[in-house]
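Sorry, explain these tokens?

___
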Amino acid sequence: MRELLNAQADQIERVLSSHGLAARVYGGTASPRLVQFYLSPAPGVRLARLNALADDLALALGAPSCRLQARGPALCLE
């Protein structure tokens, strides 16, 4: 399971990088219904630009949908 989550975290970073956005996945949580990844975007990366890529991220992860939430100093990708 850990290998799959690490591969998905790498995929998130690749998708963002291909669109010129720098962010690092630094952790997350997994439950039977939901997987959350925590993102640390580079300074100057706007939340609106990340939200615009939600469909691309869902497609890359093979998920039906993807949602970004601002939580504290970083973002949560669900």
